[in-house]
Design goal:
Rossmann fold, 18 helices, 15% strand, globular
Length: 461
């Protein structure tokens, strides 16, 4: 840690205080963070498992930090100097996790349990921090850092906000009883999610009467937006989450759209034969990360199989990792892969990998039309989710966890398990820092068929 040259890190132990910063006064950075080591096992985790060890130490209360985002930004800004943090010893200790990860390959037999491990935690738990549309993906904000500016918390780097600084927004009760963080009476997260859904809708150029396939239903927000904004359009949407299927079906029925939207509990590799070439449009929002490295070509071959050969258009949104870091990422089991944004068997692809597997899987029949990156908007999306998560934790999320997992979340050890769960979700700060620094991306790929003249070319959509 003596190699830190950007930012200032203060480490407090039971016997000492250590400070790490650039010694040159002209190079001072606004990034500051303080670590308080509660249990010396923290050092064992850090030395043997690197960043994964740090994150797990935080989850289990071995170390405290009031501003995780700034801490992770310091690590990212000093990544090259701290590269030896993941040492040979760390490699040996995480090798068993690498080897056992092969048990979770997203074969047809494993995929449902892998998806269930992430999404079937509890519908009530997710409603505790998502906006009312229940979109669980990156939104597009009118003002990327508006939450900072409106509360006087803007920093010199886009998207940085620590846990100390997220308590200032107004709080109002939603119709479902959950607390929503708002600015000037507006739920900007809801507006951002609707803006993103509209963007996907417009990129796909969905027209009345189109038949749309959605791979990855979520809780139905994209399918419902399509049906509500395109008369006579029908949507077949597939998911492997039983709880998502149940709630999405309920919401669709309540909206009076059950005659135009069908929610199928189905693996994308098990589509019925009559779906071949049946769809004018294919949409998939942040689902491809669950496919796994070994099955990306198969995914694109299925998209090609289902999309009409004449005039078909597709839009896929994917969380990505930069090419320069991808090969090392493939060999690692880091905190994102194990605990945060992915389920067992999943992977964050590099953009070039998506292009390569699309070409191979489709036999060159899918042609990329446009690519955009909304990754920096994910930093604010995560902040908005975290505000709601903390505001609703005791009244909504804890009861949901106790209801779903009574044997684990109640009794003598229940409260400690709940605290581990809370800390795990707060580690989304790791991802916020990643999206802020473009260490992570969120790309929207639009593709079509050769000869698709009617799609047009609106470069501003």
């Amino acid at each position: 840690m003596e190699r830190i040259t950007v930012g200032e890190l203060r480490v407090l132990t039971l016997s000492n205080v250590y400070e790490f910063r650039d010694p040159h006064p002209d190079n001072q950075s606004p990034l500051k963070a303080e670590l308080r080591v509660v249990n010396d096992v923290f050092w064992v985790r850090l030395c043997t498992m690197g960043d994964l060890g740090f994150a797990e130490a935080y989850m289990y209360g071995d170390v405290e930090c009031d501003d995780l985002v700034s801490l992770f930004m310091i690590f990212l800004e000093n990544r090259e100097n701290l590269s030896n943090l993941d040492s040979k010893l760390s490699y040996l200790f995480t090798l068993p996790q690498r080897l056992t990860s092969y048990r979770f390959l997203n074969t047809i037999g494993n995929s449902r349990s892998n998806i269930s491990a992430h999404y079937d935690i509890s519908n009530d738990m997710f409603t505790g921090f998502l906006s009312e549309d229940l979109t669980y993906s990156c939104g597009i904000f009118e003002d990327l850092d508006g939450d900072h500016r409106k509360f006087g918390n803007q920093t010199q780097w886009s998207g940085g906000q620590g846990l100390k600084r997220i308590q200032h927004s107004e709080r109002v009760n939603r119709d479902d009883g959950n607390v929503t963080a708002t600015i000037n009476g507006k739920d900007e997260l809801y507006e951002a999610q609707i803006r993103k859904l509209r963007h996907i809708f417009e990129k796909a150029r969905i027209l009345p009467g189109h038949h749309v396939l959605e791979i990855g239903s979520g809780w139905g927000s994209m399918a419902m937006f399509i049906a509500q904004n395109s008369p006579e359009t029908t949507v077949d949407t597939i998911t492997l989450s039983i709880q998502q299927q149940e709630l999405a079906t309920q919401r669709i029925k309540e909206a009076g759209l059950e005659d135009r939207i069908r929610v199928h509990l189905m693996d994308y590799r098990n589509m019925p034969a009559e779906w071949e070439g049946a769809f004018d449009r294919v949409i998939s929002i942040e689902m491809i990360e669950a496919v796994g490295f070994e099955f990306l070509e198969k995914y694109w071959s299925v998209v090609d199989w289902a999309l009409k050969r004449k005039g078909g258009v597709g839009v896929v949104q994917a969380i990505t990792i930069p090419e320069a870091r991808f090969q090392r990422y493939l060999q690692e089991v880091d905190f994102i892969r194990k605990w945060v944004m992915l389920f067992p068997g999943g992977i964050l692809p590099a953009l070039s990998l998506l292009f390569q597997t699309m070409e191979k899987g489709s036999g060159g029949r899918l042609i990329v039309d446009s690519v955009s990156n909304i990754g920096p908007h994910y930093a604010r999306t995560l902040r908005e989710w975290r505000k709601r998560f903390l505001a609703n934790f005791e009244d909504v999320i804890v009861p949901a966890l106790k209801k779903q997992y009574p044997d684990v979340m109640t009794g003598r050890s229940g409260r400690s398990e709940i605290e581990v769960f809370r800390r795990k979700w707060l580690c989304d700060c790791y991802c916020e820092a990643g999206f802020t620094s473009r260490t992570l991306g969120d790309h929207i790929l639009t593709f079509t068929r050769e000869g698709c003249r009617e799609y047009g070319c609106d470069v501003y959509s």
